[in-house]
Specification:
The chain is mainly α. It has 3 domains: about 30 residues; about 30 residues; about 50 residues, no CATH class. It contains 4 helices and no strands. Keywords: Membrane, Transmembrane, Transmembrane helix.
């Protein structure tokens, strides 16, 4: 009976070893780090840069339905959404909802 599930057991154990152990080690090590240290500023900067690079790639080189939208609409929605995000005190929900609403309204307006 266990022979039928051996592949799934290996995948589960390998998945645990590859991710969860490192997460727990990160939690243990993270409790000892100073939040104002230069190392954490660097980590935050790298993480932010990676997120922004992925976002820029999705805006400039989209796939799926977003690829059918004009570039000016994607850039405009992102720019206005970012401005509204800053004006509203960096509220993430607003920074996500506004560009989505602008994209939907723009798609409706141009008839896509």
């Amino acid at each position: 009976m266990i022979e039928d599930y051996w592949t799934f057991i290996v995948i589960a154990v390998a998945g645990f070893l590859a991710t969860d152990i490192w997460r727990w080690l990160g939690v243990v090590a993270g409790n000892r780090l100073n939040e104002e240290s230069e190392a954490l500023y660097w980590v935050r900067a790298v993480a932010t840069a990676l997120v922004m690079a992925v976002t820029a790639k999705l805006i400039v080189f989209p796939n799926g339905m977003l690829a059918d939208t004009p570039l000016w609409l994607r850039l405009g929605a992102a720019g206005i959404g970012f401005a509204v995000f800053l004006v509203t005190g960096r509220k993430v929900a607003v920074g996500v909802a506004v560009p989505m609403g602008l994209l939907i309204a723009g798609l409706w307006w141009i008839g896509v």
